[in-house]
Each structure stands twice: as structure tokens, then as C-alpha cells.
Design goal:
Length: about 375
């Protein structure tokens, strides 16, 4: 697919999202019977003060249009993907990136009476694109109900999955929303509007955006506190989701197959939404396959530098990486024993317990990050 067609198709998806929004957070299956505060968190969308949830694993983001954008992105050469992200981000600076969903004139422009593609743009760029570009574009957002909905959803993202952004990125978000808040007086002082709908739209934007900016800024403060808490309290690991994102970035950067990435994504989906031990067992099966293919594909990259016979089996791959000093002796031993643990607890039994699922999921991510970092430093791609 050429880049022009890809950008046009991305535009079609975003146009559909404006008409029928799909970007939404849900309770993960294990949290469906959780305590009331977890359930209530989903009903706080747009509230002036959101509670930032300490356990993002209780929530999951779903959107068919997000999935379509990702599928489209995967069909575009890596060197052209920045254009897809840039095209989506351009909608943040377009004041027409919304639609009225009601004919009521007095409430025209109120966020509950509008829909927009900008929440999807935020999710797409934060999860798959360049977060710094998203923050820079946010600072120069056009003042419209689209921006109001974007701020509502940004508050949702932070409140329900604060690990999507890093401790270092939150101050940049705060600075961006402060810039937006400061631009409201300029909108209020503009020339007269031609219709009551236009006048009321501006009224609601000027009324709702400042409070949402304050809310997002406070959520940023609380998210940074939770990162600090996670760093100081033994046993807490809020950064595992960030490490998983880094693993995905390395897999794309180093040229690993899309199937390997999809395998890790499916394991994560089953872990987040697994309602039964059988779901968790299937997830562990994907993680075991991920570990096998990670080493086999790493060998393919290493062979271009070190030569030798390309391994085709798990044990051969592990030995090849050890013989060529990609892995140390201790790392080889760890990987071998970890593979045995995955097989014994996740593959041979009929079911898998959540404790084992959590252990294997977290260790797979962290070990994968170790291997991919080593490959990147060696220049193997």
C-alpha cells in the first residue's frame, strides 16, 4: 500500500470515529466482580476531579477503529509510518474535528452533546506513535468541542491507565494543558458569532475546558506520586506496562516479525480479560511461543554478523546466542530454567492459576527487554 492511500484510509477511519465513537475503557474480566470503587471509576468520565486508579490491570481499552488504524499502520513501511501519525495529529489543530449529536441549541458545544475522533487520535499516538509529538500538538490544539472531548478522554486515560505515560512525560502534559487554559480568554474576546449555535458552542468550550485542564493537571500530579510510591514500596511494579511498550518498540525497530508482536499482544489480552483458568493457560502458551520465537529470530539477526548454521530449535537457539556472547552463561541458564517453568505451569497442566500467569507474564516482559536491549547495543537488526 502506498503512503497516499494509507493516509486516505486512516482519514476514513477517523471520520467514522467522529460519527460513531468506539474508543472506550472497560472493566477487565477479573475485575468485573471487584469492589464498588473500581466499578464506579468507569462512571467518572468527565468529572471535575478523577481518582487515578492504582491498579491499571483492572481496566482495558478497546476500539475497533483503533484496531483498524493499527492494522493499516502495519501495512505501511516503517520509514513512512510517521506520516500516518502526523496526519492523525493534524486533526487536533483543526477546529472542525467534532460533530453535534443533538439539535438542542442551548447545549450546542457541550461535550456530552458532541462526538469527536480526537480521543482515538490520542490513544493511537500514545500507544503506537510518538508521545512527544502528541504533547507538542496538544499545546497548540484548536479550541473547539473536539478539544473538550480530547481532554475528557485524556483524563480517562490517566485515571484508568496512568502507566501509559512516564514520570518524565507528565510534566509536559501539565505544561500543555496550562497553555490551553491560558488561551481561553483569547477565544472569549473574538468577534461576534453569526448564529446562536456558534455562540453557545463557544460558551460551552470556554466553560468546560478550564475545569478539564485543571482536572488533567491534578491527575498528572497524582500519577507522578503513584510512580514515586511504586519506586519506594517493595513489591509494587507500576512500570511493567511501560517495559512492555518498550519491548514492542524494540521488536518493530529490530525487524522482528509482526506475528511475534501479535503473539505478545494476544497473551496480554488473555491476561487482562481472562475470565477462566483456561484463558490464562492459553495466554501462557502464547508467552512460551513468544520466548521461543524471540530467541530464534534473534539468532537470524545475529547470524548476519557472526555467521554459522542458523538454529531451528529452542535449545539450539539458546546455545547459539551463548556461543556468540549475546547471552552470558548465567542468562542462558536463567532462560533455560524459565522455559521449563513455563512448560510445567502453563503448558502441561489443564489449567493455569492467575499467580503463575502474572509471574510468567511479568518475567517474559522483563527478560524480553533484556534480550532486545542487548541486540540493539550490538547493532543486530
Amino acid at each position: 500500500m502506498n503512503l497516499q492511500d494509507a493516509v486516505a484510509k486512516a482519514g476514513q477511519i477517523l471520520d467514522e470515529e467522529r460519527i460513531i465513537p468506539t474508543a472506550r475503557y472497560w472493566l477487565a474480566a477479573p475485575a468485573a466482580s471487584a469492589a464498588a470503587p473500581v466499578v464506579v471509576a468507569l462512571s467518572e468520565r468527565g468529572a471535575p476531579r478523577r481518582n487515578v486508579q492504582e491498579h491499571p490491570e483492572n481496566f482495558i481499552f478497546r476500539s475497533i477503529n483503533f484496531d483498524l488504524l493499527c492494522a493499516l499502520l502495519d501495512q505501511v513501511p516503517k520509514e513512512d509510518r510517521s506520516a500516518i501519525f502526523a496526519a492523525s495529529l493534524s486533526r487536533i489543530s483543526n477546529r472542525d474535528s467534532y460533530r453535534h449529536t443533538s439539535q438542542e441549541v442551548l447545549s450546542a458545544g457541550q461535550w456530552r452533546q458532541c462526538s469527536s475522533e480526537l480521543p482515538l487520535v490520542a490513544e493511537f499516538n500514545v500507544r503506537r506513535g510518538d508521545k512527544l509529538s502528541f504533547v507538542a500538538t496538544l499545546s497548540n490544539a484548536a479550541l473547539s468541542p473536539g478539544l473538550t472531548l480530547l481532554l475528557v478522554h485524556l483524563g480517562e486515560m490517566i485515571a484508568l491507565d496512568f502507566t501509559l505515560l512516564t514520570d518524565e512525560e507528565y510534566p509536559q502534559i501539565q505544561k500543555a494543558v496550562e497553555s490551553i487554559r491560558g488561551s481561553i480568554p483569547n477565544l472569549q474576546g473574538q468577534a461576534r458569532w453569526h448564529t446562536p449555535t456558534e455562540r453557545n458552542t463557544v460558551h460551552w468550550v470556554c466553560r468546560e475546558v478550564p475545569a478539564l485542564c485543571d482536572s488533567v493537571s491534578e491527575e498528572c500530579r497524582k500519577a507522578r506520586y503513584l510512580f514515586l510510591k511504586g519506586a519506594l514500596v517493595p513489591g509494587m511494579n507500576f512500570e511493567i506496562n511501560q517495559d512492555r511498550g518498550t519491548v514492542l518498540t524494540f521488536l518493530e525497530k529490530l525487524g522482528f516479525t509482526e506475528l511475534l508482536i501479535q503473539s505478545l499482544d494476544e497473551a496480554e489480552r488473555l491476561y487482562r480479560t481472562g475470565a477462566t483458568p483456561f484463558d490464562l493457560k492459553n495466554g501462557l502458551g502464547h508467552l512460551r511461543s513468544f520466548l521461543e520465537q524471540l530467541h530464534l529470530q534473534a539468532c537470524a539477526a545475529a547470524q548476519r554478523k557472526f555467521g554459522g548454521l542458523l538454529p531451528s530449535k529452542w535449545g539450539e537457539a539458546l546455545k547459539y546466542l551463548r556461543d556468540n556472547a549475546v547471552l552470558s552463561k548465567q542468562e542462558e541458564a536463567f532462560a533455560s530454567q524459565f522455559y521449563v517453568l513455563m512448560s510445567d505451569t502453563g503448558v502441561h497442566p489443564l489449567i493455569a492459576e492467575r499467580e503463575y500467569a502474572r509471574l510468567v507474564r511479568n518475567m517474559s516482559i522483563e527478560y524480553g527487554l533484556l534480550v532486545l536491549t542487548k541486540l540493539d547495543k550490538l547493532g543486530l537488526r
